[in-house]
Specification:
alpha+beta, 437 residues, nine-stranded mixed sheet, six-stranded antiparallel sheet
């Protein structure tokens, strides 16, 4: 048990990677090739609708290089959160791509699938037993959150992946997984401690983002040994530094010293970072603290309606100065015009150049822009209602007679014709819970 090498080709399957970096990584004779296939970052739509946020052609390209290399060199390939969200439909989508590659390349491989989608009835039974608890920002805990979910997945830990490795598999395709799991499973199976293995996995799941300059579309090698682990980018134009690695350890975390996951916490209070040379960093001292009660994080998404948007801009300083009053007036006109409507709808404005990114949290209150980009968004129970309200709001703002207006031909400039776009189904996350198992 001297060391285990894990090659991470890319931050998310389908994001791509340079072939030269990948070949350089293969020349280091890794024990595993591992990649994260998804994230909740793109929002709830992809879980709810059952589609991938990465393109089929891009995923196939990455998998083709990985699978051919893995089979030729006898290196197991581990894929987590298949298809972007890791439900059964995403697992099947990715499996179909693998089968297509196998057929085209005439390969012979053993593929193991690990499901992560939960049947709703099972989660409801666990809820009744008091074994489903909400996580921040959710505070209430009710059956409706479960019943409304289109799909429910759970973030698996390393245990089912280790079980799959025991079978001598060539490719493991896992549903929704805790991001470090596919990177840590091999080292833990080989006898290395969970703390360093999971900390290494936490960094490797983003591949070369932890390098300088960082990139999610390039390869990173992780080497775990009895002292800790070493990180090295496979592109000679990148380097790992103590700052880049330590900074990435803080990535997507609410606590700088504790990273909560399935079955326990990665404790980083005694972690130390050492620059070995110009391109490599060693990390030691990370620990894993097991929970008394093993829990799995549940994710669920529900459909809340349909969306229509319109994109416009204004460069009139008089309108810009009164934009808040104008938007409120348009809201009132919409309410009056659709007062008889029994279906629910939401009219939203995003004003770029004012607070389009941060909304009410924007600390700069004075508008300093010479132009504003305005997105009119309507979410309603049906696409027809969403489009009708968006059209009315757009035309109302276009011709609204605000105080001091000079030109009467129109207040807004539209970059596209047609000006309104049907956004289709809208989903929101409704489950952010822990399941006791």
């Amino acid at each position: 048990m001297k060391e285990i090498k894990v090659l991470a080709p890319t931050a998310i399957l389908g994001y791509g990677f340079p072939e030269e970096s990948f070949k350089r990584g293969l020349s280091r004779q890794p024990d595993f090739i591992a990649v994260d296939g998804g994230s909740t970052d793109p929002g709830p739509y992809y879980l709810g609708a059952g589609v991938s946020f990465t393109a089929q052609a891009a995923v196939k390209r990455d998998l083709q290089l990985m699978i051919k290399a893995g089979i030729q060199s006898g290196i197991p390939i581990l894929i987590g959160t298949a298809g972007g969200s890791g439900a059964d439909v995403h697992l099947q989508w990715t499996e179909n791509i693998i089968r297509e590659i196998v057929g085209e390349e005439e390969l012979d491989l053993k593929l193991t699938l690990i499901r992560a989608e939960f049947e709703k009835d099972l989660i409801l039974r666990k809820f009744e037993q008091g074994r489903v608890k909400p996580l921040f920002p959710l505070t209430e805990n009710n059956r409706q959150q479960i019943e409304d979910s289109t799909r429910i997945v759970g973030q698996m830990g390393i245990e089912p992946i280790i079980d799959a490795l025991e079978t001598g598999v060539d490719v493991i395709l896992a549903g929704r997984a805790y991001d470090p799991s596919v990177f840590a499973a091999g080292p833990v199976k080989a006898g290395f401690k969970k703390g360093p293995a999971l900390h290494m996995g936490k960094i490797l799941e983003c591949a070369a983002i932890a390098a300088d300059p960082g990139s999610g579309s390039d390869c990173m090698l992780g080497i775990i040994n009895e002292e800790g682990f070493i990180l090295e980018p496979m592109n000679p134009d990148r380097q790992c530094t103590v700052t880049s690695v330590a900074a990435h350890t803080l990535y997507e975390k609410s606590d700088p010293y504790r990273l909560v996951g399935p079955g326990g916490v990665i404790d980083l209070q005694k972690s130390k970072y050492k620059q070995l040379d110009e391109r490599r960093v060693e990390v030691c001292g990370s620990r894993f603290l097991a929970d008394k009660q093993y829990t799995i994080k549940l994710e669920g998404s529900r459909k809340i309606g349909h969306r229509t948007i319109s994109i416009a801009g204004t460069r009139d300083p008089i309108m810009i100065d009164q934009i808040d009053e104008i938007l409120e007036a348009v809201r009132g006109m919409v309410r009056d015009n659709f007062s008889d409507l029994t279906e629910e709808y939401r009219l939203l404005f995003k004003v770029y150049g004012k607070n389009g990114v941060m909304g009410e949290l924007e600390p700069i209150k004075e508008i300093k822009s010479h132009e504003l980009g305005i997105i009119i968004e309507v979410v309603a129970t049906t696409q027809e209602i969403a489009s009708s309200i968006c059209s009315f709001a757009r035309s109302s703002m276009l011709h609204y007679g605000y105080k001091g207006r000079v030109g009467t031909a129109g207040n807004l400039a539209f970059p596209y014709s047609p000006s309104d776009f049907k956004g289709g189904e809208v989903y929101e996350f409704c489950l952010n819970h822990l399941l006791e198992v």
